[in-house]
Amino acid sequence: MGGCSADHADQFNTCNVYRSPYLFLLTNKSVYINFVLQSTFYYITKTAPMENNKDQLETLNEIKGLMQRSSRFSSLSGIAGIAAGSVAILGSVLISIYLHIGFFEQMPGIMSDKKASQPVNLTGVFVILVSVFVLALILTIYFSSRKAKRKNLIFWDIMAKKVFVNFFIFLFTGGIFCLILFYYGIYFLIVPAMLTFYGLALINISRFTFNEIAQLGALEICLGIIAAFVPVYPLLLWMIGFGILHQFYGIYVYIKYERA
Q1: Which of 49, 67, 165, 216 is 20 to 30 A from 155 via CA?
Q2: Are 248 and 84 in contact (CB under 8 A)?
Q3: Which region, left, alpha or beta, applies to residue 105 given φ > 0 means left and ψ of -120 to 50 means alpha?
Q4: Rounded distance, CA 111 to CA 109, Å?
Q5: Is 138 helix (H, G, I), strand (E, B) or coil?
């Protein structure tokens, strides 16, 4: 068939090359051995680099993860931000009940001039603020340490210490400044100072942890400036800054970094 004749060996071999290359290999040992060697060499040169590249990529990813964990404090939990914001909102509600004012009402005695009413007793407000801060700090440590434990990370490492020190430098300075304002009766600048110093503290620690903290800090500073220009609504702005913004930040961080 096709011009091939079984009477001639050369024609038989030549025709079977085209009919079945495998038959040609089996009937010619030297060609078969050469084919096997070339196939093996081709497989090694093609698959080995791929496997090596895969191993190298996995190694690089592990090194990258270790470098990120050593240079970033990634244990901050989004749930901690939500919890801290909830505590701040609860504290603002307690302050509203204690002072008998609404969030959209002007706080009596906030401006220290002769036409203003008598300044209210802010001792109870101070106690509520300290309680809110302590409870929010406890919840932040609890949820962040739980996140670190779930990811087999060390919570109180060198990066956590850096975050703690750099955060409380600004926070402690802001607290002293607010006490000075309270001592001299300059009440209308206390909330703007709290928001501003807190925002500066967040921006200061953002280089050690999530970049979103710097954005939250910038919003806190902007809100502090607004509170300085509109000092008659300090409770509302305080609730927005320490309550609502924290909750939005916590939800965003949780969805971006933790939910997966």
Answers
A1: 216
A2: no
A3: beta
A4: 5
A5: helix
In this structure, the answer to whether residues 95 and 56 fall within a common structural domain is no
Q: Helix, strand or coil for residue 224?
A: helix
Q: What are the residues whose beta carbons fall under 8 Å from the beta carbon of 99, sequence distance 6 or more?
A: 107, 108, 120, 125, 235
Residues 6+ positions from 201 with CB-CB distance below 8 Å: 166, 167, 168, 169, 170, 171, 174, 217
pLDDT band at 22 (very low <50, low <70, confident <90, very high): very low
Asked if 96 contacts 230 with a C-beta cutoff of 8 angstroms, the reply is no
Residues 149 and 20 in one domain: no
Does residue 2 fall inside a structural domain? Answer: no
What average pLDDT does the structure give for the chain?
A: 77
Of 9-18, 146-155, 161-170, 183-192, the least confident: 9-18
Q: Residue 39: which of 56, 22, 15 has the closest Cα?
A: 22
Instruction: Name, in order, each residue with C-beta under 8 angstroms of 20's C-beta and a sequence gap of 6 or more.
Output: none
Q: Is the pLDDT of residue 84 over 90?
A: yes
Q: How confident is residue 36, by pLDDT bands cut at 50, 70 and 90? A: very low
pLDDT at 121 over 60: yes
CA nearest neighbour of 91 among 219, 252, 216, 246: 246
Q: Which domain holds residue 61?
A: 9-66
**Residue 107 to residue 99: CA distance in whole angstroms:** 8
Looking at the 3D structure of the chain, how many domains does it have? 2
pTM, full prediction:
0.70
For residues 133 and 126, the model is more confident at: 133
- pLDDT score at 150: 85
Q: Could you tell me if residue 251 is inside a domain? A: yes
Instruction: Provide the residue count of the chain.
Output: 260
Q: For the chain, how many helices (H) and strands (E)?
A: 10, 0
